Amino acid sequence: MATLQMATRAHPRLGSHVSRAVVVGFTLATAAIHASLGGMMFLANAVGYTTLALAMVAPGPIGQIRWLVRLALMGFTAMTIGGWLLFGARFPLAYLDKAIEVALIAVLAFELWRTDGGPIGVARKAQRLLGRLAGLRTARTPR
Amino acid sequence: MRLRGAASLFLTGSLLLGCNGSTGSAAPPPPAPVGGAVITAQNTTFDRGQLNVPAGRPFQLLFENREGAPHNVTIYDDGGQSLFVGETFGGPGSRTYEVPAIPAGSHKFRCDVHPQMSGTVTAG
Fold first, then answer.
1. Nearest CA to CA, how far is B109 from chain A (Å)?
2. DSSP H/E element including B99
3. Any chain A CB within 8 A of the CB of B21?
4. pLDDT surpasses 50 at B23
């Protein structure tokens, strides 16, 4: 985390690339671990993580709502940790995976703070998005 | 674009890894330890849903995991309290669990990683 902060201060764009690469790396690592566990539930979890990792680097319209992808990835990771705390088996690979997931949430929180302006910035972005969606719906409604 | 291609390749590889963790062999299970029991896991399934074990004295449970996915065997009483928790490990490989004495009657067993892999232990 300290390295990320230093990189961000020195080269803002480089810092952004580094932190996103770390997020994608952690996400793909936990996806691979879940895929290796076998069973439909773990496979579905791996597909979810991989889809979100793709959304983290996808260009075009998804790039406009990257803050929402970060938020979704944070929520998905938190839910996975919660599910494990409630029902999960305790064995070495599971502990390693949870450590990766906790680190992933930490880096995502750092990105959210730096890139999206923290919770207030995210709330503003959400408000703008909802406003735009509501505007679209109004425009489409026949009079 | 290159990143997307690499990620797609990773997803395909991960899914294949997840699906092809088994060795695919249909060999018969190893012989049970004397006075104990044997069970095998393959394709995220136990080879039997019923284990007969002695009641009131320790016994050995030979567990053979025939696939890469990690599994274990845990025995629970009716109240959901664990009577014995076997080590979780990825295969192929086997462990001989030293199970302490469990009371006579019908109990449940399952894999803690995959709770749908379950069955009944009859101690008598």
1. 14
2. strand B93-99
3. yes
4. no
